Amino acid sequence: MSFDHFDYKGVRFAKELHTEESVSCAENEFEVFDDDIYNVTYPKSGTNWMIEILNLIKHKGDVTKSDVLSIQRRSPWYEEATFHEYIDKMDPPRIITSHLPHHIFAKSFFKSKAKIIYTIRNPRDVIVSLFHFTKILNLFTPTENFQNFIEDFIQGKAMFGSWFDHIKGWMQMKDDKRFFFITYEELLQDLRGGVVRICKFGGQELDDAQIDLVVKHSTFKSMKENPMSNWSEMPSEIMDLSKGAFMRKGISGDWKNHFTVAQSEYFDKIYQEKMKDLNMSFFWEQSS
Ligand code: A3P
Questions:
Q1: Which of 66, 43, 39 minimizes the C-alpha distance to 223?
Q2: Domain map of the chain by residue range?
Q3: How far is the CA of 182 from the centre of ligand 1 (A)?
Q4: Is there an atom of ligand 1 within 6 Å of 129 CB?
Q5: What is the reported pTM?
Q6: Which residues are part of the catalytic machinery?
Q7: pLDDT tens digits for 68-94?
């Protein structure tokens, strides 16, 4: 997985998106407000989906209020310095996105009452989604060597470092009242149920019709057709959508179309080793 990068506290960042100063500022200087909601993920785990859901909930399902801005303006990634101008203009409660691992997250968060929603996805599907994403996001040098790609992912050479460390870091907060986690696969299986749980966590009271609207506008099909959500407004020199869609497949288990049996067994062995001290079991562990 090749991209121009630097390392910060053991984590890999893309130079085209971040600088050491922007990451250090995100960690040490960013001011968290008590009513903020943070949408935190490892990349390709359903970040944009959660942005859509949270903004629709904020506007009680009214897509004409929720989707006036493109996704990156609606809920910017606060570790990217260029997005701060959007954050400064946000109405409360701010819905802010981040891929930062737990040990680099804004220090002021840990002294606040702000909340985090953390979405996790089967890492094999994350690898596949990322593999395709490297073909459209121009900061990457695309590769056809899937074996090397898996190896780089395992070794934490992807943007935002090791998936395993990201999950284990954030799961330290799993019993904290300010922290809610959900899997991509749960959302796929029961989007409405997920939305109801997210509303409950956020203390937002929506009636049944409003929840139906949130669900309607956050399906894969709705988002794929929505120019405010499908990244079609991005300049092609940054994201070249002629080479593939950002809203690609939106399914669980696409890894089965990419991994050989040997790759799958190899990944499984590494997964068991790296996750054994977590004492949690995820949705995909039964089916993979
Ligand atoms: P695929 O590449 O497997 O299709 P992120 O937002 O973290 O970058 O994750 C992108 C992945 O989430 C892509 O996966 C994308 O298709 C999927 N996704 C985005 N919105 C979705 C939705 N409404 N339903 C299902 N999957 C969605």
A1: 66
A2: 2-286
A3: 15
A4: yes
A5: 0.97
A6: 99
A7: 999 999 999 999 988 888 999 999 999
